[in-house]
Design a protein that fits this description.
alpha+beta, Lipocalin, 2 domains, 9-stranded antiparallel sheet, 18% helix, 45% strand, disordered N terminus
């Protein structure tokens, strides 16, 4: 009988501890899971790091059979901006790019007047395209995010249109920084960049597409 009493005594103590609110392994696991869920993604407001953020642009001829044989691409720099995240999801924000920082990176140039890289920059900066002198900045105001797509209002040359940005990726960088990227395409005609192809001197410019592909990579810190 003594052995039976010895067996039940610890069990009784255990039951008393549970009844008094002692945390069980199951309770501990549930609390840990809740904590991990709460820490699932970044949250807060992040200011854009101008030196480590960039917009990549690409313009081409009208594609034939899905292929464009000639075009230009390059970068443009952010001047300011911030985005707000809630658990890894971008909820709001606004960013501004400096239109005077247009820089070509492709090799489709010739060493003669009108065909140099600086000639392209001058043309893109003119009233034919982005009229940088009167409209030095372009701005994106973020309105929300759904199904992995970012929505916003893009203003270029004083013209504002709604845009949807695809392939959004958001991740945490070192020291709690925010890294984000995405892609979208705009119709330059909707923003007043109405270069008349009928006046183009080069035949390649006569079949210039209205589409401009944009892709961004941004880094932000609190």
């Amino acid at each position: 009988m003594k052995s039976i009493k010895f067996f039940f005594a610890p069990a009784a103590v255990g039951m008393m501890l549970v009844s008094c609110g002692e945390q069980t392994p199951a309770d501990s696991a549930a609390e840990t899971a809740t904590t991990e869920t709460a820490k699932e993604g970044l949250s807060g407001e992040f200011s854009i790091d101008q030196n480590n953020s960039v917009v990549n642009w690409e313009g081409n001829m009208v594609a034939i059979g899905g292929v464009s044989l000639y075009g230009h691409n390059g970068t443009i720099q952010f001047s300011e901006g911030s985005v707000t995240l809630e658990n890894g999801k971008i909820t709001s924000g606004s960013v501004v790019v400096d239109m005077s920082t247009i820089r070509p990176l492709d090799d489709n140039y010739e060493d003669k007047d009108g065909r140099r890289a600086e000639d392209l920059v001058a043309h893109l900066s003119s009233d034919d395209f982005f009229n940088v002198e009167e409209h030095p900045n372009a701005r994106l105001d973020i309105t929300g995010m759904e199904d992995g797509k970012l929505m916003g209002d893009l203003t270029v040359r004083g013209n504002t249109n709604a845009v949807t940005i695809d392939k959004i990726k958001v991740k945490e960088g070192e020291d709690g920084t925010m890294m984000a990227s995405g892609e979208f395409t705009i119709d330059r005609q909707k923003y007043g960049a109405k270069f008349s192809m009928a006046n183009a001197m080069d035949v390649r410019d006569k079949i210039l597409s209205d589409d401009i592909k944009l892709a961004f990579e941004v880094k932000g810190a609190k």
